[in-house]
Amino acid sequence: MSSSIFTDFRPEHARLWGQHPVMLQHRLHESPLFSDDALAALLHGYPRPDYDLLCMAPQGTGHLQEWREGDLGRAEGRAALEAIQRGRMWINLRHLHHHSKPHAALLDEIFREIEQRVPGLRSFKHNLGLLISSPGAQVYYHADLPGQSLWQLRGQKRVYVYPNTPPFLPEDQLEGIVLSLTEAEIAYEPWFDQHARVYELQPGQMLHWPLNCPHRVENHEVVNVSLTTEHWTATYRRAYAERYTNGLMRTRMGVQPDAPRLGGARFWAKAAVAAAVKQSGLMRKQKHEKRIEWELDPTAPSGRREIEPWVL
Q1: pLDDT tens digit string along 4-52?
Q2: Count of CB atoms within 10 A of residue 289's CB?
Q3: Is the C-alpha dihedral spanning 52, 235, 142, 157 positive or negative?
């Protein structure tokens, strides 16, 4: 983009960044990279390992058994886009920067500007995802491992952001995500909403929250298109290593680990264990399996049809 991505980034936002949720105005929704034609072209033939396609229960219900993974099948890009727009489903095109040079350039520009505006921020392992979701779609309560920002391009959605501390985020459940024993889900109780910060996200707005904050999303009755950006810092990487070893201690050794610490001799010993176990591949057999249960069908009223399940 030829001009600044943000239109209202002030000094106080830099001080809040990573410590409290921050909502800012941006210009990405003006980009031709996210027109219908561009979205249809991306959907057509997108590599299967790099997308998630999910259907879900109606809003107001917590039926996780209806949160099921699907496949684009043979649907053409435009037909796939129309089916997603009319069904209750959600697609996440992950690692978009690996498959599109213009989007890779945009990702570089985003973090170049953020690091210019937030003194001392040094990030790496940047990631860009594109979310297209149906009217009334929802994303259940979950937590992510990297630093996260959500950029609204079209439509409106309500985002609930919760504290990244117990009881909203128990250590053992976060460790399960780190060890890939689960995807990103954690236990949710309706009363948690009393302690959430709630944002109505409109096109041209982005939301950034502190590391690991649980969150959930409800679309308004309109098609939504959003970007997600992810990043790591040295501190985030240390937190990951600490919880990786803590998770091994809890699940494999039956030992109750101490509260996470990100420095000192004990931390470096744990970091060495985490690195050795990850390099050995010992935990690969324990990873959560992705089970594909339906296929996109633009001719079906729901936009999908059931298939014989298979594991990706």
Answers
A1: 999 999 999 999 999 999 999 999 999 999 999 999 999 998 999 999 9
A2: 6
A3: negative
Separation of alpha carbons 84 and 296, rounded Å: 9
Transcribe 207-249 into DSSP letters. EEE-TT--EEEEE-SS-EEEEEEEEE-HHHHHHHHHHHHHHHH
Per the CB < 8 A criterion, the answer to whether 34 and 76 are in contact is no
Name the residue with tokens 């727009």.
85
pLDDT in tens, 154-211: 999 999 999 999 999 999 999 999 998 887 779 999 999 999 999 999 999 999 999 9
The identity of residue 79, as a single letter, is: A
| pTM, full prediction | 0.92
Distance, in Å, from the CA atom of 24 to the CA atom of 39, rounded to the nearest integer, reads 24
Provide the 10 A C-beta neighbour count for residue 86.
14
Mean pLDDT, the chain, integer: 91
Query: Do the bridges between strand 205-209 and strand 22-25 make them parallel or antiparallel, or are there none, so unpaired?
Result: antiparallel
The CATH number of 11-170+187-232+288-311 is 2.60.120.650
